[in-house]
Write a structure and sequence with these properties.
This protein is of the alpha+beta class. Helix content is 49%, strand content 15%. Helix 1 crosses helix 2, helix 2 packs across helix 11 and helix 12 runs antiparallel to helix 13. Belongs to the 2-oxoadipate dioxygenase/decarboxylase family.
Length: 464
């Protein structure tokens, strides 16, 4: 597609419009943004007081920092997913990573639509965690009801579909069409308090799983949370509690470390909202639904497959032990911390043991060295690289993790559902279905490890 519009700019504008809409829909989300701002200002202040230069003030300047990093939606059908894929592509967001949520007991799987190059990520990193219902994991009765309800809804406006067709055909968008795209795109994510099902139907869906009810019962695929990032998520958690916000019990992901890895996230719990259900006489019955919340994330280093396997192994062990000993709250956090001592916590070890991905750059010394001098044969690439680092010709910094974690996502889903039994055998024994997901999507999902490895490789090729 030869673009006549700037995808990065369109994504930034869409993200901003979505944030404004969500703040009016869920005012507590606006309060959360203020808390994040307060926490980051404090963290910056503390680091400056300590004379440390750990935090780059540039990172917390309002314009760059206060953009949302991600949001999440939940879809019901292959048509909805493939159309969403077309819509996100217009904003330079592509499916990366496959998340099997049956691991966490949900009849769903997911991908993240996100910018896939470092340049696009640095211009605006907004991504959308997109979950899709797996019909085959529902009981027959629920399947029938879910299919019927989903078949009659239209989550995209006719104008949006027209714009998508035009982009496919002509590959162009005028500034006016970009504005129309944003206006119509927002409609897909807007909350509607009038359900498309009756209260009885809603109860049936909810009894099988509250997420099925959330996905199936409404006329749009409402955005269910937005997520700014913080430079001190522990402080945000504390401040949420201090301000009396209904904070989730714990921060998901790895414990606080010297070298942060992957992703840590917390949220305020979803609010109970009034919903009007249809009834036979075409009037509406008042009820309620719990779905929408606000979240905060703090991102660390991207791990290699080897690093990720170590992370998963440690976490599995922690969870098995915690279950056996029935550890919760602070005891769980202590256990997590102590097991994570196994995960190296210095840049040097992370690099030498090939646990994380890095971006390499020539140092000022390196810049002065002639290319020919770099080409000396040091043996294997790893030895050669080490020699360039030892000589102070190259420097490196970790790549940031841009993706999600299925178990952390499960924790986020869970704390926003209330008490749900998740022991349904059908779901827990399900196999991942990447092929099925890609078929519905109409394209391939990019492998996140491949993208990081490519970025690392490109940085090396660029430098030497
Ligand atoms: C998605 C939950 C996953 C995250 O940050 O891990 C997620 C949802 O609640 O629909 O957004
Ligand atoms: Ni999230």
């Amino acid at each position: 597609m030869t673009q006549t519009w700037d995808q990065n700019e369109l994504r930034a504008r869409f993200c901003h419009a979505l944030s404004e809409m969500y703040k009016t829909e869920v005012p507590l989300y606006g309060d959360l943004i203020d808390v994040v701002w307060e926490a980051d200002a404090k963290a910056l202040h503390n680091s400056q007081d300590a004379g440390a230069n750990i935090i780059n003030p540039d990172d917390v300047l309002p314009s760059r920092h206060r953009v949302e990093r991600h949001g999440a939606i939940r879809l019901g059908t292959a048509y909805e997913l493939s159309t969403m894929r077309r819509m996100f592509a217009v904003m330079g967001m592509y499916p990366v990573g496959y998340y099997d949520l049956s691991l966490a007991g949900f009849p769903m799987h997911a991908t993240a639509f996100r910018p896939s190059t470092q340049d696009a990520l640095s211009q605006n990193p907004f991504r959308v965690f997109t979950t899709v219902l797996r019909m085959e994991l529902l009981t027959e009765k629920t399947q029938e009801l879910a299919k019927r309800a989903l078949a009659q809804r239209h989550i995209f406006t006719p104008k949006l579909l027209e714009i998508l067709d035009m982009v496919d055909k002509k590959g162009t968008l005028t500034p006016a069409e970009c504005t129309e795209f944003i206006k119509n795109g927002l409609e897909t994510f807007r909350w509607h308090s009038k359900a498309t099902v009756t209260l009885d139907e809603y109860m049936l869906l909810k009894a099988e799983h509250p997420l099925i009810a959330d996905i199936v019962s409404f006329p749009s695929s409402h955005i269910n949370h937005l997520t700014p990032r913080s430079i001190d998520i522990d402080l945000v958690q504390q401040l949420m509690l201090d301000h009396g916000m209904p904070a989730k019990e714990r921060i998901e992901g790895p414990p606080k470390r010297q070298c942060p890895i992957l992703l840590r996230q917390t949220s305020f719990k979803a609010l109970e909202e009034t919903v009007f259900f249809r009834d036979a006489s075409a009037t509406f019955v008042k009820g309620s639904h719990t779905a929408r919340f606000g979240e905060v994330e703090q991102r660390g280093y991207a791990l290699t497959r080897k690093g990720r396997q170590l992370y998963d192994r440690i976490l599995d062990r922690v969870n098995a032990e915690a279950e056996e000993l029935k550890l919760k709250g602070n005891d769980y956090e202590q256990l997590l911390k102590s097991h994570f001592k196994l995960f190296p916590d210095s840049l040097l070890e992370l690099r030498q043991q090939n646990l994380a991905y890095f971006c390499y750059q020539l140092t000022p010394t390196g810049e002065r060295v002639a290319k020919d001098d770099l080409a000396t044969d040091f043996g294997s690439p790893a030895v050669y690289l080490q020699a360039l680092l030892d000589k102070g010709i190259l420097k490196y910094e970790p790549l940031t993790y841009e993706d999600f974690l299925p178990l952390s996502a499960g924790g986020i889903f869970n704390s926003n559902l209330g008490d749900v039994s998740q022991s349904r055998q059908l779901i827990m024994s399900a196999e991942p279905d990447l092929d099925g997901f890609q078929r519905s999507l109409g394209t391939h999902i990019a492998d996140e490890f491949h993208l990081y490895a490519q970025m690392q490789q490109e940085s090396l090729l660029h430098s030497i």
